[in-house]
Structures are given as structure tokens and as C-alpha cells.
Amino acid sequence: MKISKIFFLLILIAAFSGCASHNKQSHSENNAEEKLTDFSSQITPVQKEALNGWLTAYFDLKNALVETNSSKAKERAAAFTSQLKATEATAFQGEAVSFVELHKNELLKHLEQTASATDIEVQRTHFVGITQSVYEIAKSFKPNTQKVYYQFCPMAFDDKGGFWLNEQEKVYNPYFGNKMLHCGKVVTSF
């Protein structure tokens, strides 16, 4: 009995120290600052407000995943979907129209799959695609009214790593929730 407790304690320590000292960088992490077109000067205050709403809906979904609450994640994904459908991509100008439409379609696909999933791990898998689109929208249009933190956990998805956006600098990991709540680091902020 005592040996199994010690063994369990050693595994727990290894898991937590592995996250903190994980030196393996993914290809994606090295390219986190890819060049994206800056559309921030091409949007109206109404469009900026709509895109900021997308960001807020994203944070609500992320927080449900941090809480490891599958039913709340379903609700948040459905609410985000409704918000997306209310935004017309054609209201944007020039190249921004196709950019918004592309990301809106990707978001809808992943959000609808998240809203229909009952397994939190499936929801977390779709959150990767949601994050990618929201990150590119946020970096390109800069709709946020507060600082946004782009964070990374190297241990997510069997050490392939996973990114997410956070409304605060302190790491709250949506891929592990309370198992490794603070595993990760800030890659950049904007």
C-alpha cells in the first residue's frame, strides 16, 4: 500500500514537472507570429464590436473547457454559433470579406461539432480549430478592448501541443482543465 502511494506521488510529480520544464517546441509554436494581413484600419466601429463579441464568446467557451464542463461548453458553443450567424461577412470591405467568410465557416464547422459533442475531449479537439480562426481574426482586426494572451501547452494532445487565447496573463489550460490547470505559457500578447 505504501509503495503504491509513493509510486502515485512520483507519477504526479513527474506530470507537473514535465509541464513546467517541457523543452520541446512544436513547429506551430515557432511560427506563432505568422504574418497576417492587418485589417484593423478597414473596419467600422460596429464591425469591431461584432468581432469583439466573437472574442468574448470564445472566452466563454474556453472557460467552460477550463472548468471541464461539457454541458456548459455545449451551451457556449451554441451561443457563439448564433452570434456568428448574426454577423454578415459581406459587410466588410475588400480582402477582409473573404478572410472573415473563411474563418466564419471554419468556426461554424467546429462550433457545431462542439455543440453536438457530449465528450469533453472531443470538444477540446474542436477547440483547436476554433482557436486558430479566432486568433487570426483577433490578430488581423484587433477588435479586442483589452489585452489578449496567446498561450501554449506543450503537453496537450500527446505532446503535440495546443494553443488558446486567454483574457488574462495567468494560464488557465482548457485542454487539461483541473488536471493541469496552469500548465502552459504565454507565447505573445496583443
Describe, in plain words, how this protein is organized in 3D.
The chain is mostly helical. The chain has a domain at 36-144. It contains 7 helices and 3 strands, in the order ααααααβαββ. The protein has helices at 2-21, 27-30, 45-66, 70-85, 95-116, 120-141, 156-159; strands spanning 149-153, 162-166, 185-189. Strands 2-1-3 form a 3-stranded antiparallel beta sheet. α3 (45-66) runs antiparallel to α4 (70-85) and α4 (70-85) packs antiparallel against α5 (95-116). The longest helix has 22 residues, at 45-66. The protein is globular, with a radius of gyration of 18 Å. The model is unreliable at 4-18 and 20-32 (pLDDT under 50).
Q: How are the elements arranged and paired?
A:
Layout: H1 2-21, H2 27-30, H3 45-66, H4 70-85, H5 95-116, H6 120-141, E1 149-153, H7 156-159, E2 162-166, E3 185-189
Antiparallel strand pairs: 1-2, 1-3
In short:
With 190 residues, this protein is mostly helical. It has seven helices and three strands.
